[in-house]
Amino acid sequence: MKVMVVDDSEMTRMIAKKTLKNLGVSDVQEAADGQIALQLFESDPADVIFSDWNMPNMDGLTLLKEIRRRNSSVPMILITTEGSKGKVVQAIQEGVSDYLVKPFTPAALQDKLSKWVGATI
To answer: What b-and-e string marks burial along 39-55, b requiring 16 or more CB atoms within 10 Å of the CB?
Structure first.
């Protein structure tokens, strides 16, 4: 299984990557923004994507739209502090799979991953 972590915070990417490795996921792609993530996805698609909402160059919602144009079924989980009803509704309309609220715990990341890969990690 390949998991992509997209966040402009190097610390958040490092924590997510370490957590995923501890869960047995050895194939983890990292991207600092949505543009880089989209290029990675086009050349080497991930099985699950965890993406920050607020990033420079291309935000998580725009990345979600672009991913959905290319693949309607890959699970995409937005990592966000955004909780406004309007933003949540917009992301649901664009096909978001789930949310992970910052700051997240390793257990929360594990729960979301397990939910979308259909197995207990």
So the answer is: ebbeeeebebbbbbbeb
Show the tokens assigned to 107. Answer: 């257990």
pTM score? 0.91
Would you state the structure tokens that stand for residue 17, as one six-digit string? 């990557």
**84-94 per-position pLDDT tens digit:** 677 778 888 99
In a domain? residue 121? no
For the stretch 93-107, pLDDT in tens is: 999 999 888 888 889
First-to-final CA distance of the chain = 11
Domain that includes residue 84, residue range: 2-110
Domain assignment present for 18: yes
Q: Give me the CATH number covering residue 7.
A: 3.40.50.2300
